Amino acid sequence: TRTHLVTGAASGIGRATVDLLRAQGHAVIGADLKDSDISADLSTAEGRAELVSRARELSGGRLDAVISCAGTAQFDPLTIKVNHFGAVATLEGLRTLLAAGTDPRALVVSSIDSVHPTDPAIVDAALAGDEEAAVAASRAAVDRGEGHLVYSSSKAAISRWIRRSAVTEDWAGAGIPLNAVGPGVVVTPMTRPMLDDPDMLKLVEQSVPMPLHGHARPERIAPLIVWLTSPENTHVTGQVVFVDGGADAVLRGDRT
Length: 256
Ligand code: NAD
Description:
10 helices; binds nicotinamide-adenine-dinucleotide; alpha/beta; 256 residues; Rossmann fold
């Protein structure tokens, strides 16, 4: 059995992933704001430090996989803090525990929204590792009525961070595949309010067309996450694997 650490473990895609891993007999350390093994707010430096120190205690100093699911979709600078900087802090903070594991693997849940329009000021600041500037750019986007760009920018930034980082000494050099999955619309507490509102639902269907099987349950995303973080995955790295009912193919069909 392997030991996985999953953030965002208390709800939605994270919880479905924890359930599948446990059903397969693996040990899981869950982290979330509450209702999990580790309570940590990944939007703050204290919470990020708490995650790493508690993970070290609970794991005995070694992890076989880290899965970063924690995320929020608020039209607020909080979204860049959690979705990009929280995910980076999770992966970088737990990398030494992973390096001590067996067949170590790492993964972030990004989004199909990473291919939507973004705010380059937010993305560039995030990729430069400048949280203060990324928060300021996010606040500016919210103030001019473009709060939705904070989410797409947070997911574009983390996807690019994955691709850049996967091939470095820290990850490929340490034998650790590092990937993202990019779900389309998944029915979770994050999206439920939008899907229940007919006007919002229309907008969602326009921006994320899913010709195959429609909106997904979180249980449909978990098996891909589990495979990408299993020892069977030896050569997939630096990828954002869309699990989106065809949305990426519709939106970017000519991309090779
Ligand atoms: P969810 O709201 O059910 O789960 C997200 C979890 O993250 C919650 O348990 C929440 O408490 C936790 N979280 C939020 N802020 C946190 C913080 N500051 N510190 C620690 N934990 C925090 O939503 P979900 O749909 O399961 O989302 C999981 C991931 O999947 C997110 O990264 C989301 O952006 C991504 N995603 C979701 C969809 C979708 O349609 N639901 C689509 C694409 C990507």
